[in-house]
Amino acid sequence: MSDKSLDEYLGELDTIKQSELQANLAYFIQDLVYILLNLKGVDTTDHSIANELNRIKLQFSKIKHAQEPQHKLNVDKPAADRFIKAALQLQQKSTEQPQQSQHLRFDNDHSEKKTSNDRKFRSDKKSKKRSSDSHQEKPPSSNSSTSLNTSQPPKSKKSKKHT
Asked: Region (Disordered): which ranges (predicted)?
């Protein structure tokens, strides 16, 4: 026998080996109980020991799945090269042709230093009309009895006839 306890022995193993050893020990004990119950004539098909053995077998399949080598993703090298070249060419084009930035001044402190571009921008803004400007309605009159819509004649009040 060994002088080490189970915890000391498990501490020396990696995770997969630890789980294998623990599952093997559990299966060994449960299998011995299963054999004992069969020797005593107990029906083990509906017994909880069958469920425990199935649970441990499931653990074995999980351990086996964890041991399988992971599939590496294959890189399509020619496609990756095309993507990189296209991105580098796009970046190179953008650095060759720097964009002209236009700054607008919004403060009133430097109003005497306006450039011709600022004046042009303001004059363009004043000359442009919105589509809603051409369809403005007349302001409502002070007479509250007239309706806002002047295109329709006012509705006449019908008098009730008393019989």
From this structure: 89-163
